[in-house]
Each structure stands twice: as structure tokens, then as C-alpha cells.
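Take a protein:
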Amino acid sequence: MLDERWEQGSSLHLSLATGAMPQPWSTLPHEFWGSGRDALRALVSWGSEHHGWRRIFVPSYYCQDVLVPLRDHLTVEVYPHAPTEPAGKPVTAAPPDVVLVASLFGVAPAPTVSGGAVVVEDHSHDPLSRWSSGSGADFAFASLRKTLPLPDGGVLWSPLGLDLPPEVPVTLDHDRAALDRLAAMTLKGHYLAGEPVAKDEVRALAIRGERAIGQGAISGMSSYSRSRLSALPADLWRKKRATNLAAFRAALGEIRGVTVLRAPFAATLVFVSRDVRDRVRAALIRARIYPTVYWPLDKPAVDGIPERDVDLSRRILSIHCDYRYDAVDMVRVAGEIRVALGVDEG
């Protein structure tokens, strides 16, 4: 059923497909953590303690929840970078500063860095990109569960072969959160197969697990996700995402007041105003299609977010287009958007 697959904030349901996953980090020093957030937290904590890191520069358009725990170790400052704008001038920073760069939604290019600061790259939205495979950063990380059907997991590696913070065991709280998410993913698969499943219980498990991932003490990665990672056909799924995006763009067509980002992570639309975005969002929800806002910036966790980025966060909307869907699904979603905008009749 299409409607349940599009629910905002829901986990990918469990897929048992197998196949080799080309991993940019496989021949480099790398570690697995409970989440991408845990990987970054571990790196920042270790860098502060052992290398004297004191300040980190982050993109102005970025998930604020990720930044909150970084403030326990470093001063967090922003530099201008949003997915709707070109990379612009290089970010200039010197040691012992750190610069976090991200190809937001997989949109390239990310900003370059000058001045000798430590460079940390976030590849969460497209871990198998050319940028990831050819990285020359000091450190790189990715939240694996953003693009793969895993209950938890993040990876940290050094493209330059540098030492990494020591891995830590899986915490009990994290293990419970991963188990909740895994149970929800498995049950969701049964539900979509037409089997009797208590939908509200599945949703409660998913929400509870999601809220707990990346919280509390820094954790390692669950044994389930470790064992499944190398067997997932991630490259094939990446191609499927691209195919679905192409189908969506073709079905939506050119519409005044709407821009579709060239972003491989999701079908991401930027509307002319918040009112239009909210109208389309409400129409999709009525059609039981649940989009996501990456990321709300009305109440930022750090100072210095440009007003244009806050405004963008009010006009942006993302719709999943991963391997769970096909061209028919994407055409349906595009059609609902066209109707909501008054281009076609319902």
C-alpha cells in the first residue's frame, strides 16, 4: 500500500535483498557507530580532548538536532551554505578549527576549505557518491540508516588514513532503541504484505526507537546492522532512487513557483512561498502521502542562521523515492501535487 510507505518519519521497512555494497571506506581506517550523530559526536569529543579542537564551522542549512551535542565540546559557528545555492567562496579556517562540509540532499558541490583547518565531510545523503569515493578530507562520516533499511548505524572513516577515536561497545539504551526500530521495520513489512498487524503498536515502536537513537551516551553499532551492511545491494538501490526521481520530475513537469532540486536523496521541492508549500503538504497528507521537511529552522540551536535559510526551511518539502517505490508511485505523487497547485483537475 503506497500510503503507509510514505508516512512522515517512518522507518524503511525491512528488506532481505542481498548483494555486494561498494563501500568507499572499506580499504581505509573506519569504524561503525550507533548513528551518524554518534560518529560525529565521538570524533568531536576525541578531537577536542586529544587534538585541541576548539571551534567547528557548520553549514547554515543543517539539521539542528545534530549540532546540539557538539556544543558540549566545541564552539559551533555557521558559514553560509544551502542546497539551493552554489558552493560559493571557500570556507577559510586555520588549525585548530574544524570545518564540517555536507553535500546537502546529495546536491553537489559542497564548499571547499582553505587555511589548513581539519575537514570533516558528511556523506549521509549519498554515501556512494563520486565525492565520497574520491574524498580527500581528514575525516568523513555517514548515517547509514538514512539510505539503507537498517535500524541503526553510522560509519566514520579517514580518507587520509588518519587515526580515529576508539570504538565503544553498544550501550544498553541504544540496543533497546535499535531493537524497537528493527521490530517496527519487520512488522511494517508484514503489514505491507497484507498480514494482520497492529498498526498503532508498530508506529509506537518506530517513534520510540527513533527518538532514542543518537541520544544519551555515545554508542557502537548493533550487531544486526553490522552483519547486514555488507550484504545490502546499496548501489542498485541508489540507481533505483535515480530512476524514481527521473520519473517524478517527468510527471511533475515545469510548474511556475515550484523548483525540484537536483538532489539524489529525495524528491525535494522548493515552493515560492510557505503558504503554497503548506497547501501542497496538506493535500498530500489528505491523499495519505506523507512528505518530510528537512529541516525546520524556526528555532535554531545555534546563532547566525541567515534569514534566507530560515525562509527556505519554510518553503521546502521532501518526498521519499527510494527502492520501496516505482515509477507508478512517483507518477501518482506528482499528479497529486499538480492537482494541489491547480495545474490539473482532481
Q: What stands out?
A: The radius of gyration is 20 Å. The first helix runs from residue 2 to 5. DSSP finds eleven helices and twelve strands in the chain.
